[in-house]
């Protein structure tokens, strides 16, 4: 019998944060809405999760984290904590999309539904982060990305023309985008990324050797225009 | 005890290893100056993005230089504040993750405490007690230092930091960011006395500073003259003279008031050679001497964080529970190292 890898996953890409552990095929996790102190919170959970599973820190095979898009500070905290953990224990890292964490959550909630999944997070400044995913009919990973994730103003024309299921708090910020989603199954319009839903993606990547060294645990921001060049005083 | 130090308060990523017995083992620095130069100042989001890219490669290089492995680290110190929140969080996250992975203590240290202890890294360190003048782009402080963590702030800037005044003046004179070194070079060829700027707050009792009025005087001078090469140099000279005079007067006053003989000058503005010479003379006249960190440790660096962390971690102090970064953190809040007390949530 194969027991599979032991993987820790961390997420701090939105207004809350979460940590989860995969061991012996079982998933357990913590999440909490808290504006600050994410680094200490995540590490406290990592310690608690390993204790509950009666595992030592050296039993972890890889560290996964949500690299974005999302809160700049949040994705950096998840990246930084992951870097420290992976470097200190000499383990590889696996970067996950926060939008795919949402899609996995939606797919798990509607296993019998068909069609695409659209994940949206509020990017502030009148914009959203978006990603489209198709469902996988076999295996533990339920979704795979269709095309590139994007940052843009919220508009129906950017969404698929075939029926889709919506997930993510971006739909709460822009309710006019919800309509198409209702045709398949109720949308998860308040959902936030949750590390538990990244573990199967991480395990699949681990098994296929898609691993990176600790210093490659880097955020993906999508929004890269963050300052204007100076002119005058 | 070998301490890894991480400095990420602003626009320098500094990493160092310090051993209680052998002293500084290795240090590495990446300066983001070029990254921010085209924006005319530090862009906090860009600084944070760069720190998270640089920290681990610098840690790896520092360990390699010291011929050590991660498991040789006995404790991790990071700059908890004051500084840019996003930049502080990047360093704190890596430090805490690494310390947890290694099952070692971690401690967030005060960036300004680290600056004022930086001369302790030199071969001829000052003994306690001493007077410290901390002058950088973010801070201007006169502190009576009785020992590690025993600080009495005697005076501080009521508006701009001295380094800020240097940067703004340099910008007015068309010099590149950061302005300090370029302004000093230009002032060296400036005609003395062509302009005389006010020495702010020297005619008042007390040890506080103010630099915004001096900046206004520079603005007026620049706008009321034809800004040729000679005028630029003369204005730079007049500005530097005013700053150096102001510090000399206040430091002399503080030495008399406290009866201290030893003076420590730290922070980026402390790299100014004219200021260094003048303050050495002031301390000498008071029967003492001035102590400076080497030039590389005047500006932000990891070595001073590792050293400050060493002083506290080796006494058993460490972060306990959820410890948040402190973008604003008055130096006077610190206490002497205390076993198991930790710099917990405030």
TrEMBL record, chain A:
<dbReference type="Pfam" id="PF00814">
    <property type="entry name" value="TsaD"/>
</dbReference>
<dbReference type="GO" id="GO:0016740">
    <property type="term" value="F:transferase activity"/>
</dbReference>
<dbReference type="InterPro" id="IPR043129">
    <property type="entry name" value="ATPase_NBD"/>
</dbReference>
<dbReference type="InterPro" id="IPR000905">
    <property type="entry name" value="Gcp-like_dom"/>
</dbReference>
<comment type="similarity">
    <text>Belongs to the KAE1 / TsaD family. TsaB subfamily.</text>
</comment>
<keyword id="KW-0808">Transferase</keyword>
<dbReference type="GO" id="GO:0002949">
    <property type="term" value="P:tRNA threonylcarbamoyladenosine modification"/>
</dbReference>
<feature type="domain" description="Gcp-like">
    <location>
        <begin position="35"/>
        <end position="131"/>
    </location>
</feature>
<protein>
    <recommendedName>
        <fullName>tRNA threonylcarbamoyladenosine biosynthesis protein TsaB</fullName>
    </recommendedName>
</protein>
<dbReference type="InterPro" id="IPR022496">
    <property type="entry name" value="T6A_TsaB"/>
</dbReference>
TrEMBL record, chain B:
<dbReference type="GO" id="GO:0002949">
    <property type="term" value="P:tRNA threonylcarbamoyladenosine modification"/>
</dbReference>
<dbReference type="Pfam" id="PF00814">
    <property type="entry name" value="TsaD"/>
</dbReference>
<keyword id="KW-0808">Transferase</keyword>
<dbReference type="InterPro" id="IPR043129">
    <property type="entry name" value="ATPase_NBD"/>
</dbReference>
<comment type="similarity">
    <text>Belongs to the KAE1 / TsaD family.</text>
</comment>
<dbReference type="InterPro" id="IPR017860">
    <property type="entry name" value="Peptidase_M22_CS"/>
</dbReference>
<keyword id="KW-0479">Metal-binding</keyword>
<feature type="binding site">
    <location>
        <position position="111"/>
    </location>
    <ligand>
        <name>Fe cation</name>
    </ligand>
</feature>
<dbReference type="GO" id="GO:0005737">
    <property type="term" value="C:cytoplasm"/>
</dbReference>
<dbReference type="GO" id="GO:0061711">
    <property type="term" value="F:tRNA N(6)-L-threonylcarbamoyladenine synthase activity"/>
</dbReference>
<feature type="binding site">
    <location>
        <position position="115"/>
    </location>
    <ligand>
        <name>Fe cation</name>
    </ligand>
</feature>
<comment type="function">
    <text>Required for the formation of a threonylcarbamoyl group on adenosine at position 37 (t(6)A37) in tRNAs that read codons beginning with adenine. Is involved in the transfer of the threonylcarbamoyl moiety of threonylcarbamoyl-AMP (TC-AMP) to the N6 group of A37, together with TsaE and TsaB. TsaD likely plays a direct catalytic role in this reaction.</text>
</comment>
<dbReference type="GO" id="GO:0005506">
    <property type="term" value="F:iron ion binding"/>
</dbReference>
<feature type="binding site">
    <location>
        <position position="300"/>
    </location>
    <ligand>
        <name>Fe cation</name>
    </ligand>
</feature>
<dbReference type="InterPro" id="IPR000905">
    <property type="entry name" value="Gcp-like_dom"/>
</dbReference>
<feature type="binding site">
    <location>
        <begin position="134"/>
        <end position="138"/>
    </location>
    <ligand>
        <name>substrate</name>
    </ligand>
</feature>
<feature type="binding site">
    <location>
        <position position="167"/>
    </location>
    <ligand>
        <name>substrate</name>
    </ligand>
</feature>
<keyword id="KW-0963">Cytoplasm</keyword>
<keyword id="KW-0819">tRNA processing</keyword>
<feature type="binding site">
    <location>
        <position position="184"/>
    </location>
    <ligand>
        <name>substrate</name>
    </ligand>
</feature>
<dbReference type="InterPro" id="IPR022450">
    <property type="entry name" value="TsaD"/>
</dbReference>
<dbReference type="InterPro" id="IPR017861">
    <property type="entry name" value="KAE1/TsaD"/>
</dbReference>
